[in-house]
Amino acid sequence: MEVEAVLYLYKEAGEIVKDVGQHLQASGPLATCFVQLCDCEPLVRSDHWAVQLGLIELYVRYGRVFAVHPELFARYGQRVLEAFAGNQGIRATDPRVVTRACFMFSRFLKLARKQIVPFTTQLFNALKDLMVVQYIPSSLVPVQVDGTLPKVVIKGTLKAEDQACLYEAIASLVSTLPPEQMRPAVQMLLKQPADNLTEILRAPQARIAMDVRGHASWAARSIEAIATVSKAFGMQHACTAPDWEEGLMAAARILDRFSGQLSVEVGLWRASLFLCRRMVEVLSDQFLGPLDTLLPLLYTNNNQVDLTELTIFAHHIVCQYHKK
Fold first, then answer.
1. What mean pLDDT do residues 232-257 have?
2. CA 69 → CA 14, 59, 77, distances in Å?
3. Per residue, what are the HEC states of the chain?
4. pLDDT tens-digit profile of 21-31?
């Protein structure tokens, strides 16, 4: 209890400092305290959920010190990264800690991105088992009275929102790599969800027919993971364009495969539209070819609200390219 109170007061102390960055640059008292905190291994490795939550807040509040004093990252940076990605953070036993750590992870990475980028592959390998998009049989996700589907989490995996945070965090590092390293890293990050789509497309129809809704939901979550990764990229990352085009065509084939087979919306249509929206920003003119294939498939949806949303999107595209 005393440790939690001290951590809370330390965090609040930072609120009264007008320019925390300047304070850290000058190695003020709060910066000195943060170094002492990182130096206390028993504290950093605490297994108490409240202490873990308090430390996560402090890592993000004062983590900028690693950018202004790179020598401190060399000494303590890996310890903090291990705490974030390990049993004191993303792999904690308390779900409150897990969710907060996943959400704050990308914010911490931005604070000292230059120092952390060399650890990109190491971080991905440490977290990739948690980033697997699992097939969940539809029998475990019964349709509710109002027609919605409940959110189900398989034991030992992350909630979809937490998993999305990890994809977004690692992608933010990948997008800053040199071009010769960036594309292999993008392929590494997209491989698992892309492999899911390939498996579904190659599966015999008899297997799909046994659980159409379960496989369509699996495809939707995999497409959404690809779209989430793309949020860190733009037209300036031209070397990655072939990988996004490949993802778009896979999404088109998935939409075609499940066309007319779903009585309940499992997120496949929305995930595909999400991917299309992202590709306007990422591919620019190169998106027009895949869009020609995708748009008719998206318009097979009979939901009036969805069709209105799609029409607004189509209008946005026309305006976007008309400006050019």
1. 95
2. 18, 15, 11
3. CHHHHHHHHHHHHHHHCCCHHHHHHCCCHHHHHHHHHHHCHHHHCCCCHHHHHHHHHHHHHHCCHHHHCHHHHHHHHHHHHHHHHCCCCCCCCCHHHHHHHHHHHHHHHHHCHHHHHHHHHHHHHHHHHHHCCCCCCHHHCCCCCCCCCCCCCCCCCCCHHHHHHHHHHHHHHHCCCCHHHHHHHHHHHHHHHHHHHHHHHHCCHHHHHHCHHHHHHHHHHHHHHHHHHHCCCCCCCHHHHHHHHHHHHHHHHHHHHHCCCCCCCCCHHHHHHHHHHHHHHHHHHHHHHHHHHHHHHHCCCCCHHHHHHHHHHHHHHHHHHHHC
4. 788 888 888 88
- The pLDDT tens digits for 159-198 are 999 999 999 999 999 999 999 999 999 999 999 999 999 9
Which residue bears the tokens 């009036």?
304
Could you count the other beta carbons within 10 Å of the beta carbon of residue 62?
23
